[in-house]
Amino acid sequence: MPQRILVVEDEPNIRQVLKLRLEGAGYDVVAVEDGLKALEEVSHNLPDLILLDIMMPKMDGYEVCRRLKAKFETSRIPIIMLTAKSSANEKVEGFECGANDYVTKPYAAKELFARVKAVLQWSKTQRDANPLTGLPGNFSIEKEANDRINSGIPFAFALCDIDNFKAFNDYYGYHRGDEAIKMTASILLKAVQEKGTGKDFVGHIGGDDFVYISSSSNAEIIGEQITSEFDQRVQFLYNAEDRKKGCLEVKNRRGEIERFPLMSITIAVVRSDSDVIEHVAKLSDIASELKIHGKSLQGSVVVCDRREKRTEQQKASTSKTGT
User: Could you state, in order of their start, the residue ranges of all structural domains in the chain?
Assistant: First the structure.
């Protein structure tokens, strides 16, 4: 389904040219001649982007922008201002009203299309971002994975899942659960930044599930830093008594005491050069299988290509079995 653009321009010739050119580029375009009609149109059908002229009769672009940004349902619609002037003060006023970008008349078609494409992509990414961590969500994760597959350059896809999170969240409450999620996001970002290449990606699927995408050679190194730091920091999310016991003791509905270990993290790494990966679904399927295996092991663990690679703490522990 094509993305929908609302053009608000009082000059008939410019309005028609914009409509034809944008439609030629594959967009669904609605064009109106003033600010009042723009607000009316938006109230019926929310566009994906608004190209908004500043100088118009009845209501100028600044006021239209202010009214749209003041309402929750329209506040996230991206706006590119169209102006015949290029003064700094005019641009500042537009940005203060909530505009995302500016195009100065007369404008080149290539520049306009580039700005439209960039703002639409930014908007989609913003809508997709997880509100708790700010990390890219499922749309961005799938796009990034597809781009890597299509490039033909080897990469690694790592699925990260917090073990025993539900028990922790139920016992301590959602606020403490959110702290665990945000802590995990910060650990992933730090590890990718310190051990990655600068071209790596971190995403948040939702809940306690995360993804990072990196080079095949760095994926396990990143995973090892994540598991190590997670194990060091997670214990401080627990009360001293529970931390000392090394578990949560919860009475179930039958009145029986159930014990849940402290949270750990399982990382399932899939290398694109170790299997034929043609689509994201296969990446997800292999990673899910690996994750099941990883969760059958004790503590934080990195499982890669169906072989687990444990943390140094696990290697030193005789109570944990290997394969």
Answer: 4-128, 138-315
Dihedral angle computed from the Cα positions of residues 68, 81, 144 and 148, in that order, rounded to the nearest 10 degrees: 170
Instruction: Give the global pTM.
Output: 0.69
> What is the phi/psi pair of residue 250, to 5°?
-125, 135
The helix (H) or strand (E) run that includes residue 202 is strand 201-206
Cβ burial, residue 87 (10 Å; 0-12/13-18/19+): exposed
Q: pLDDT tens for residues 104-148?
A: 888 888 889 999 999 998 888 888 889 899 899 998 899 999 999
| pLDDT of res. 261 | 95
The CA-atom distances, in angstroms, between 314 and each of 99, 251, 264, 310, 318 are 52, 30, 12, 6, 8
d(CA 70, CA 87): 25
Cα→Cα distances 266→111, 158, 213, 222, Å: 46, 10, 15, 13
Q: Rounded to an integer, what distance in angstroms lies between the CA atom of residue 53 and that of residue 18?
A: 12
- CATH 3.40.50.300, domain 138-315, yes or no: no
The span from the CA of 213 to the CA of 220, in Å, is 11
Fold annotation for 4-128: Rossmann fold (3.40.50)
Measured CA to CA, the distance from residue 136 to residue 231 in angstroms comes to 25
The number of helix segments (H) and strand segments (E) in the chain equals 12, 13
The reply to whether domains 4-128 and 138-315 share a CATH topology is no
Cis peptide bond prior to 131, omega within 30° of 0: no
